[in-house]
């Protein structure tokens, strides 16, 4: 008489029977899951293909878009939506007050799905990158400006065989999925560009994304910060600079003692020579403006008929440099090193213009960007 054993080297009728019972439990008590099937990263073609971002023969889930950073940023999703059943434990929304700030604890869901039915429906096993829509989590009463319900989307972060999914035959029947909410990122562009509802003029990005509101908050914070600290370094424009000679005496050009006012009083008009220096030294004090609010010119070349004490700002130098005419030559006064603390293209510094370089030059009839990756600028070309 053979030994009694539920385990078999192959999946027997016992396995099929238990698998059917488990699948029925999901059919009766599970919830619908709309699966957006991940097809793989979009292929890099043409001149954009490099050694770290190669061109593949076909779009497949196993392809890696960026071999250097091991990222799949431009993901392609199937236009067809697949529906399966799943089960998970609902949680109350709790805030973690044990740390500084508020931390939402239930942004991760652990869900179980039936293995055989999901593979039969989708055509392969579920994998990290697949996006799941939970239709029962729609928010019909969201406080926004849209008349459509807010849908809830999660991306599979990890997938394992569930411990409770093993039957008495020692074969698995359930997958355990670790899900995280998607965000308005490059990876989910194919999904967020879909219409929010049938015949709706809004996309899912319009309804779900917080990008515009976050940018408004960020710009408001930057504007307030710039109001508090308009430029880096130290402000010295309100301080008066006295022009002195080499011996330390005050440099006076002329003094007039016989100015008679209408009431008969006599005033003294003293004309000082424009200072050759700001008089205030320190870290980041140069702003490119002459001391004492003196008039100055600006341009890419010095004027042809300067007068003694004239100031001129050279805007073709980075940072811009302020000069003073000493009678026979232009002498440097200071560099405009005080800049706004916001890193944008308006900053007239070498680093700012290098990092935020948006200049496009036309070379041999072809528009070429000055800022480009070395991998693209130093491509090997055939010598024809």
What does this structure look like?
This protein folds into two domains: 13-209, no CATH class; 233-384, no CATH class. It is built from seven helices and 16 strands. The protein has a six-stranded antiparallel barrel with strand order 1-2-5-8-7-6. The protein has helices at residues 13-29, 115-122, 189-192, 204-208, 211-228, 350-355, 374-377; strands at residues 31-41, 75-88, 95-96, 103-104, 108-114, 131-133, 153-161, 174-181, 252-260, 266-272, 297-299, 311-314, 321-325, 330-335, 360-363, 366-369. The model has no long low-confidence stretch (mean pLDDT 84). The protein is of the alpha+beta class and 384 residues long.
List the main descriptive attributes of the protein structure presented here.
alpha+beta, 6-stranded antiparallel β-barrel, 384 residues, 4-stranded mixed sheet
Largest sheet: 6 strands, antiparallel, barrel
* Order of H and E elements: HEEEEEHEEEHHHEEEEEEHEEH
The count of DSSP E runs of length 2 or more, i.e. the number of strands, is 16
Q: What oligomeric state do the depicted chains represent?
A: single chain
Helix content: 10-25%
Shape: elongated
Question: Which strand order does the major sheet show?
Answer: 1-2-5-8-7-6
Count of individual helical segments: 7
Supply the helix-strand structural class. alpha+beta
Mean pLDDT score, rounded?
84
> What gap, in angstroms, lies between the N and C termini?
83 Å
Topology of helices and strands:
Blueprint lengths: L12 H17 L1 E11 L33 E14 L6 E2 L6 E2 L3 E7 H8 L8 E3 L19 E9 L12 E8 L7 H4 L11 H5 L2 H18 L23 E9 L5 E7 L24 E3 L11 E4 L6 E5 L4 E6 L14 H6 L4 E4 L2 E4 L4 H4 L7
Parallel strand pairs: 11-12
Antiparallel strand pairs: 1-2, 1-6, 2-5, 3-4, 5-8, 6-7, 7-8, 9-10, 12-13, 13-14, 15-16
């Amino acid at each position: 008489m053979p030994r009694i054993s539920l385990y078999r080297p192959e999946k027997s009728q016992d396995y099929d029977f238990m698998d059917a019972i488990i699948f029925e439990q999901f059919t009766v008590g599970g919830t619908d899951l709309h699966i957006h099937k991940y097809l793989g990263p979009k292929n890099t073609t043409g001149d954009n293909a490099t050694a770290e971002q190669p061109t593949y023969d076909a779009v497949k889930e196993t392809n890696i878009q960026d071999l250097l950073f091991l990222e799949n940023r431009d993901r392609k999703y199937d236009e067809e939506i697949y529906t399966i059943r799943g089960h998970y434990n609902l949680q109350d929304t709790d805030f973690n007050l044990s740390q500084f700030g508020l931390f939402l604890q239930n942004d991760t869901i652990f869900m179980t799905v039936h293995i055989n039915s999901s593979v039969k429906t989708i055509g392969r096993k579920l994998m990290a990158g697949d996006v799941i829509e939970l239709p029962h989590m729609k928010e019909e009463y969201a406080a926004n400006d849209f008349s459509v319900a807010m849908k809830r989307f999660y991306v599979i972060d990890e997938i394992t065989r569930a411990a409770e999914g093993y039957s008495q035959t020692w074969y698995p029947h359930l997958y355990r999925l670790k899900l995280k909410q998607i965000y308005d990122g490059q990876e989910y562009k194919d999904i967020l560009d879909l219409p929010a509802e049938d015949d709706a003029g809004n996309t899912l990005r319009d309804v779900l994304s917080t990008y515009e509101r976050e940018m408004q908050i960020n710009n408001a914070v930057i504007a307030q910060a710039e109001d508090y600290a308009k430029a880096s370094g130290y402000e010295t424009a309100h301080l008066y600079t006295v022009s002195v000679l080499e011996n330390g005496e005050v440099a006076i050009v002329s003094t007039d003692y016989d100015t008679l006012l209408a009431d008969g009083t006599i005033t003294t008009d003293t004309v000082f020579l424009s200072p050759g220096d700001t008089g205030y030294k320190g870290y980041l004090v140069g702003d490119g403006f002459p001391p004492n609010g003196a008039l100055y010119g600006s341009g890419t070349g010095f004027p042809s008929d300067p007068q003694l004490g004239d100031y001129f700002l050279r805007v073709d130098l980075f940072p811009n440099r302020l000069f003073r005419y000493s009678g026979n030559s232009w002498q440097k006064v200071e560099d405009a090193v005080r800049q706004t603390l916001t890193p944008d293209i308006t900053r007239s510094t070498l680093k700012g213009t290098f990092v935020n370089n948006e200049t496009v030059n036309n070379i041999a009839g072809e528009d070429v960007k000055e800022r480009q990756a070395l991998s693209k600028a130093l491509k090997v070309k055939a010598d024809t």
